Amino acid sequence: MDLFLQYMANGVVIGSTYVLVAVGLTLIFGILGVVNFAHGEFYMIGGYAGIVAITVLKLPVLPAIAFVLLVAAVVGIAAEAILHKPMKNHDATSSIISSFGLAVALQNAALVVMGPQPQRLNLDVSKIPVLSSLPTDFGPVFLPQQRLLIPIATVLLIAILYVVLRYTWTGRGLRAMAQHATVARLCGVRVERVAIVTFITGAALAGTAGMLMSSVFFVYPIVGNMIALKAFTVVILGGMGNVAGAAVAGLLLGITESLTSAYISNAMRDVVGFVFVILVLLFRPQGLFGKAVERS
Amino acid sequence: MRVYLIALLAFAGLAVAPFGIGGYETNVLMMVLFFVILAVGLDLVTGYCGQFSFATGAFYGIGAYTAAIMTRDFNTTIWVHLPAGAIVAGLFGLLLGIPALRLKGHFLAIVTIAFQTIVYLVISQWTSFTGGQVGLPMPNAGPVTVFGVTLFEFGSLRSYYWLTLAMTALTLLISWRLVNSRLGREWVAIRDDETLASAVGLDTTRGKLTAFVAYAALAGVAGVLTAHSLRGVTPDDYTIWISATVVAMMVVGGRGTFIGPILGAVFLAILPELLGKFAEYKMLIYGVLLVLVVTLMPEGVVGRLRARAAR
Amino acid sequence: MTQFSRRHMLAVMGASVAAPSVLRAQSSDPIRLGGMLPLSGPASIEGRQILSGVQFAIEEANAKGGVLGRRIELVMEDDESNSTKGVTAVRRLIEREKSPFIVGTYASAVAIAASKIAAEYKVAMLSGGSTAAGATDQNTPGDPWFFRSWPDSNAQGDDTARAIVEKFKKTRVAIIHDNTNYGVTLAAQVTRVVSGVGGTILSTDSYNAGEQDFSSMLTKLRSLRPEAVYIGGWAGDGANIVRQAVEAGIRTQFVGSGSMNSDDFIRLAGPASEGFAVASLYEPSTPNPVGKAFGERFRARHNLDANTLSALGFESMTIGIEALRRVGKPDGLEIQKMLKGGMKDFQLVQGPAGTTAAFNAKGSVDFPNFIAVVKDGKRRLDV
Question: Could you tell me the pTM of the whole model?
Answer without folding.
Answer: 0.83
